[in-house]
Amino acid sequence: MLRRLIQHWCVENETRGVVRISTPRAPPGKLNVVEEIKNLKRFGQEALGREETLQKLEVLAMEGNNRRLMCEAGVHKSLILFVVKCTSEDEEGRRRIKGLDESLRLLHLIGVPSNDAKTILIENDRIMESLTWLLHQEDFFNKAYTIVLLRNLMEYTSSHIVERLDPEIFKGIIGFLKDVVNSLNRTSPTVRDTVQSSRPSLGKKEPSKLDHSLVIKQAVTAALMILLETSSWSRNRSILVDLGAVSELIELEMSYSGEKRITELMLGVLSRLCCCANGRAEILSHRGGIAVVTQRLLRVSPAADDRAISILSTVSKFSPENMVVEEMVNVGTVEKLCSVLGMDCGLNLKEKAKDILKDHFDEWKKFPCIDITLLTKLLSSSPKDLLTEFNSRVGV
């Protein structure tokens, strides 16, 4: 009402040079979403093949309520089927990838509801083939969107699918993590340069409003969650170790330090890969394997502590003693384990630390840099006595 009064006054005073205030356009809302959904249902895959349709849907999807409306209307299902169509070969062996970038980006925005994610992979086995193909393409951000989508679909699907995952999917995920490490270390072109060089046509399009750094972080987290869940099975653990997952995980942690959740997930995957001999050998052979696990102990969170001590315990028990002892001395693991015994932390953590120190006590004595008097005292004291001494030192 106030706007109309002002506009009426502007019209009456036009001769005095007053310019009429225009009526602002209403932001895209429910009516716009409903209209686009109607077009989508009316024209099906043909509508998604039009670039303007996908661009309109992406703009609308920036609003949370609109994303909910899209999911309720099944837009995510149409997008997934469109992605499958784009990545499938026709009779002449060609793929029609027009609209693929926009579809993946839009899928990333609206997500897949959990009740649909349970059945999507079971109902259409071609989806996994499409996602596998996408993971092996050059476009970095499309791979990031694909990994987040894959995690979304796998979270609620049948354990049979997770257990028998195609090794090519693991290869694609590990390759993505390697790309992330390379971009962080600047040993190869940055992510932005990689994207622009691999897809020169992107420079002509309006840039996405998505935060690329957030997309990468979400994709790294999703990738690690997939590896953590799938590494519960020995078959998958062997595949991951053979593909070099141990080395890439260690390199990722060395480059991506400071992210609590990523560290917890990385240590979780490593602790499972340590269940096989080749996995333990890979950790020992990597220049930063034991070092980075030791460094994260007592610095991140109780969950990270449990996983780090589990890795150190498994490696020390089942690997060649001479290699383990020398590496743990060189990177400061012995001192860190002594710190665990002398600090206020979980009893289980203390017990595992004490077991590691006891198992190799005779070997530790051969190194002049190890304080054997302190080590003997720590191993002979009860957890209660050590805690009392710790509290007295900190003034509790």
From TrEMBL:
Domain U-box, first and last residues per copy: 32-378
EC code: 2.3.2.27
Keywords attached to this entry: Transferase, Ubl conjugation pathway
Alphabetical GO biological process terms: protein ubiquitination
Catalytic activity: S-ubiquitinyl-[E2 ubiquitin-conjugating enzyme]-L-cysteine + [acceptor protein]-L-lysine = [E2 ubiquitin-conjugating enzyme]-L-cysteine + N(6)-ubiquitinyl-[acceptor protein]-L-lysine
Organism superkingdom: Eukaryota
Enzyme class: transferase
InterPro entries: ARM_PUB, PUB22/23/24-like
Keyword Transferase among UniProt keywords: yes
GO terms assigned for molecular function: ubiquitin protein ligase activity
UniProt function note: Functions as an E3 ubiquitin ligase.
The protein's name in its UniProt record: U-box domain-containing protein
Organism: Arabidopsis suecica (Swedish thale-cress)
